[in-house]
């Protein structure tokens, strides 16, 4: 059987918020090392890869590897029924077709449980090769979300150009063009508040703004975002989830400019 | 009707078609389908353009003809075939139909944009019809009801209401002329009688004839087209009480308006099929955003 207890159900809530708009349904692969999820969006342009380590849970038990096909919309509905600091327990029998989610308040005065039907999903797993990225940009996640949101007003595509001087986000559209340049922060108190760029080669790639905006839904999960880029390979947008794991979004670059 | 007498009566014993449960049927075929003795005629099921239900059609590939079967129950009758007595339960009238009528619902459905023919004539629920529909499309001239656009090596079509109405109006006019010349009583207030003919046709308003002719033709039209045709004919919209089963009248018109010629200019084109599931505006926008981006699976290895 599978059982996982999470002290802060708010974390899972945020994770679901971060993926529910890209994916309608997904398979959660549970093993004794944790829970993994990998899925492409409908258009097969982006890929979400999530990994929750078993050590991040208060209690974690998984006797047998288990793949649970979950309708994320339904799961979000259930997660709406809890408050952020409720303790949450997920349970499933081996070969079960339902998943039980239980919430308890900290003082144990209120307990609620929900049972959700599982689905049989036919999803292909992709092997993601180890890549040495030419540019790795670390920046505050809120800053990245802000830039994506601001620039998406101007155009559908966002050009991310990383050079020695810094990283430049630019776009253009009917009303004109917009550019945001970020240089490395020279002094910062905390690492996650600054912008750092590790670069071996300059890279300039174009991406669909709408997808980047959807990735930014993960902003509440982490104060820092890591963007990894190399010429002609997908961009990686990574958010570390404190103690629990990480969520990575892969987005293929645009090959042609929209008119 | 005199036209019926031109038809050759033929007795056909049905064995192969499963749908035709009766062992013995009495078919009345039009001359065009009996001319040569090629037995390539087959019974096929297509969606009836008005109801969307499956209806039985007779299709001859060699003669390039499509005909509809309409059955009348005809019980307690028998025929002599030489010295054998053969009971029959029903009479089937086989009348030629322009495949354009069959296509109309499909065209109307895809009327929002220009599309290749094989994407228009696509039955989502019954994909086995797709090939058949494409085959039938060579029997008729789609240009009569649709606008054509050539784009690179593709020919794209879009339903044109104006053309359709221009194509249908003469049919209505012709049917009403036939009704007038044959002095068929169509007054909605009078009992329909074939035995008694009115001596004075002028006493019945022409509108009655047009409306009756319209009701005959509209049995082959999707509701939307019916409405616009009614408007086009200048008839007030009212619930009709003199609608009756049309029998073969519609094809009489079809024969008059010559359009069953073969048009070889419409070839089927191979285009990637676009699957259209129900999508919200958000999904649509996301799909649009995804255009111009390579598939992510081309970067990663499938396990």
From TrEMBL, chain A:
Residues 1-125 form the Proliferating cell nuclear antigen PCNA N-terminal domain. Gene3D superfamilies: DNA Polymerase III, subunit A, domain 2. Signal peptide: none annotated. It comes from the Eukaryota. Residues 127-254 form the Proliferating cell nuclear antigen PCNA C-terminal domain. InterPro entries: DNA_clamp_sf, Pr_cel_nuc_antig, Pr_cel_nuc_antig_C, Pr_cel_nuc_antig_CS, Pr_cel_nuc_antig_N. Keywords: DNA replication, DNA-binding, Nucleus. One of its GO terms (biological process) is translesion synthesis. CDD domains: PCNA (cd00577). PROSITE patterns: PCNA_1 (PS01251), PCNA_2 (PS00293). GO terms for cellular component: PCNA complex. GO terms for molecular function: chromatin binding; DNA binding; DNA polymerase processivity factor activity. It is found in: Nucleus. Belongs to the PCNA family. This protein is an auxiliary protein of DNA polymerase delta and is involved in the control of eukaryotic DNA replication by increasing the polymerase's processivity during elongation of the leading strand. PANTHER family: PROLIFERATING CELL NUCLEAR ANTIGEN. Homotrimer. Forms a complex with activator 1 heteropentamer in the presence of ATP. This is DNA sliding clamp PCNA. It comes from Cinara cedri. The lineage of its organism: Eukaryota, Metazoa, Ecdysozoa, Arthropoda, Hexapoda.
TrEMBL record, chain B:
It holds the Pfam family RNase_H2-Ydr279. InterPro entries: RNase_H2_suB, RNase_H2_suB_wHTH. One of its GO terms (cellular component) is ribonuclease H2 complex. Residues 101-229 form the Ribonuclease H2 subunit B wHTH domain. GO terms for biological process: RNA catabolic process. The RNase H2 complex is a heterotrimer composed of the catalytic subunit RNASEH2A and the non-catalytic subunits RNASEH2B and RNASEH2C. Belongs to the RNase H2 subunit B family. This is Ribonuclease H2, subunit B. It comes from Cinara cedri. The lineage of its organism: Eukaryota, Metazoa, Ecdysozoa, Arthropoda, Hexapoda.
